[in-house]
Amino acid sequence: MKNIIALLILIIAAPLTAQTGLPPAPLANTQLDDPAKEAEARALMDELRCLKCQSQSIADSNAPMAGDMRSQVRERIAAGQTPEQVRSWLVERYGNWVTYDPPVTAATWPLWIAPVLLIIIALWLARGRFRRKGKD
Question: Is the pTM above the cut of 0.85?
Answer without folding.
Answer: no
